[in-house]
Amino acid sequence: MSMLKEFKEFAMRGNVLDLAVGVVIGGAFGKIVTSLVDQVIMPPIGWLTGGIDFSQLKWVLKPADNSDPAHKVAEVSIQYGAFINTVIQFVIIAFAIFLMVKAINRLVRKQEAAPAAPPADVVLLTEIRDLLKNRP
Of 56, 53, 57, which is closest to residue 39 (Cα–Cα)? Predict the structure, then answer.
């Protein structure tokens, strides 16, 4: 029973929950970026390059051989088009994260730049000290 209690305490810590939320949101963000690249960015690039679908680009090392049904040989190829799509997705994700970090850093700098007002009791004590200094 003790181990179950320890596990519950571990799983309910703020860091673990934050990590879980980050993973779920990251997965959803990845799907959005994949859709953006595959359905919005790559079609115009393919159109500009003469109708090339990057996801289908490949270098065939050994073609498939289906002539003998007993010994089907799958195609062996290097799919560099899918790699190009993945690199574009990475660049978009990296740029989006860069923009988020930049915005967060800007907010943190604004908070650090604004000096905090001293508490009222400190202001009152400072005034009393100054009045006592100026007494004859």
Answer: 53
